[in-house]
Amino acid sequence: MPSSPSRIGVVLFNLGGPETLDDVRPFLTNLFSDPEVIPLPSPLRQVLAWWIARRRAPIARGYYEQIGGGSPLRRFTAQQAAALEKMLAVNGDFKVVVAMRYWTPFTEDAVADLMTFRPDRLVLLPLYPQYSFATTRSSLGHFNAVWNTRARKAIPIATIAQWYDHPGYLGAMAERITDTFSQLPPGDGSPVHLVYSAHGIPLSLIRKGDPYQDQIEAETGLITARLPEWMNAPTRVHLGYQSRVGRTKWLEPSMESLLHELGRQGVTRVLVVPISFVSDHSETLYEIDILYRDLARAAGIAVFARMASLNDSPLFVRALADLVLTAR
After folding, report:
1. Which domains can be identified in the chain, with CATH numbers?
2. Interatomic CA distance for residues 2 and 24, integer angstroms
């Protein structure tokens, strides 16, 4: 008798985000309780997380108020999951679930869905193109702990740790950059400077062997090489880091200092490309679209545009499908 077709579960990981203003403080508490974010013993880390969340919540609530009262990350990730499951359906019986690290649907919710589906195999796919201890390692480690506690039997698990250099993903990024570039207002006709914006991380993680910076720098080169020659002049391509928290040293240059320097040099047109995010959320909708736009204007940059995140771009979803189908 022929064996029945395999049932394959796919887990999409992301950080999550508060969906209402009341969610902001508990979301921050969850974030800063992660030992990958604050590497301290549990009792001290929990107290510090509570204190940081209490202090930062009023400020963060103000940010979320300016982008509609909450993060759209869950909605965009659900759209990606639905589109991916539909695309994979022609290849077999796939179930795509979402596991957020710090907000709903939590990893525990994803595992519960998988237990109902009863997969024969799992593919773990973090929606972080680059590997970092604070994102990829944290999400995968937490999932494996929950799964190993609740799973009724051992099944094969394929893990896709990073995919910053996947040709389909690079093509989707280049397509979106080119489309955005073509829609820029002419301004004064001066050259457009391409600014890649990556989420920053503390230098202490890099010193411990985190490959994030190397992968970010490699990816910017790979994407830029796919752009038309008139867009990729080396003197007009830059990389900055955003979202610094605390007083420790983070990757540099910061986006704030980079925009100031470009303004000092007389640059008047800038296209920002978020390179750490595949979905729009507070770091793009508030930090880039509002905060950095104001900084750019103050620096004399008259035209400031941002490439929309990939969200459910068909080319991007096709790249995710290829990653799943070739995972071993």
Report:
1. 21-65 (no CATH), 168-306 (3.40.50.1400)
2. 52
Residue 304 CB neighbour total at 10 angstroms: 23
Render each residue's pLDDT in the chain as its tens digit; 328 residues.
334 569 999 999 999 999 999 999 999 999 999 999 998 999 999 999 999 999 999 999 999 999 999 999 999 999 999 999 999 999 999 999 999 999 999 999 999 999 999 999 999 999 999 999 999 999 999 999 999 999 878 999 999 999 999 999 999 999 999 999 999 988 888 999 999 999 999 999 999 999 999 999 999 999 999 999 888 788 999 999 999 987 889 999 999 999 999 999 999 999 999 999 999 999 999 999 999 999 999 999 999 999 999 999 999 999 999 999 999 8
262 φ/ψ angles, rounded to the nearest 5 degrees: -65, -40
Buried b (16+ CB within 10 A) or exposed e, 33-60: bbebbbeeeeeebeeebeebbeebbeeb
Please state, in angstroms and rounded to a whole number, the distance separating the CA atoms of residues 289 and 237.
19
pTM of the model: 0.95
Distances (CA, A) of 325 to 81, 87, 172: 15, 11, 18
Amino acid occupying residue 267: V
